[in-house]
Amino acid sequence: MKWSGIPALLLSICVLALPAYADIHDYYQRGIDARGEGRYSDAVMMFERLADEGDPRAEHQLAMMYLQGEGVTPDPEMGVRLLEKSANKNHAAAQYDLGRLYLEGAHVEKDQETAVFLFGLAAENGSTDAQLLLADMFYKGDIVGRDYKQAYIYLLIALQSDKVFSPEWVDSIEARLSREEMNSARYFVRRWLEKNRH
C-alpha cells in the first residue's frame, strides 16, 4: 500500500504541533512568567494560543491583560467577555474577578446580587479570596444580610488554605455563635471539605 501525500502531510502537521501542546501547563506557566517579567507581548501570544484551545486559565489571564492594557490596547469589553467565558468554565479566579467588577461597577453595570452569586461560585470552586470576602460580607452584613454562622463557615473553609489569618477574627465570630451553631457550621465544613478534596 502506497502512502499518498495528504496523510503524510497531516501526520507531519500533527507531529510538528505536538511539542507546542505536549505540556500545556508548562506553556501556561511560561505565559505567567512572561507576564510577571513584563514581557507582555510574549504573554499575550501564549495566552491567546491557549485561549483559542479553550483553556480557562489563559482566558482569565488574557482578560486581565485586556482590562489593564498589558501588551494590548485596553479593551474592557473584550476583558469582560473573556472573564465571562472563563467563569462559565468554573474557573474560580475568573469568577472572583468578574464578581469584583460587578461589586465595584467597573466595566459592567454595578450589581451586588450578581457579585455575591459569582463570589459564591468562586468560593465553591476553591477561591480563598472569595471565601474570605464572603466571610467578611456575612460578618458585617452590609451587602448581604448579617449571618455569623455563614461568616464562620466561609472563614473555616478559608482557614484550610496556606494564607495567614488573624485568630481574633475567628474568636470574634465564635463569641457571637451558640455552641450548637458552631458545631453545625463545623459539621457543614467537614462535609464540604470531604466532598471537595481532590
Structure description:
The chain is mostly helical and 198 residues long. It has two domains: 24-110, Serine Threonine Protein Phosphatase 5, Tetratricopeptide repeat, CATH 1.25.40; 126-198, no CATH class. The chain contains eleven helices and no strands. The longest helix is centred in the C-terminal third of the chain and has 18 residues, at 179-196. Mean pLDDT is 88; it is low at 1-21.
Characteristic key phrases:
2 domains; Serine Threonine Protein Phosphatase 5, Tetratricopeptide repeat; 73% helix; mainly alpha; 11 helices; 198 residues; disordered N terminus
Q: What would you say about this model in short?
A:
By secondary structure, the chain is mostly helical. The protein has two domains: 24-110, Serine Threonine Protein Phosphatase 5, Tetratricopeptide repeat, CATH 1.25.40; 126-198, no CATH class.
Which band does the percent of strand residues land in?
under 5%
Question: Mean of the pLDDT scores?
Answer: 88
Regarding CATH, which class of the largest domain?
A: Mainly Alpha
Rg over CA atoms, rounded to whole Å, is: 22 Å
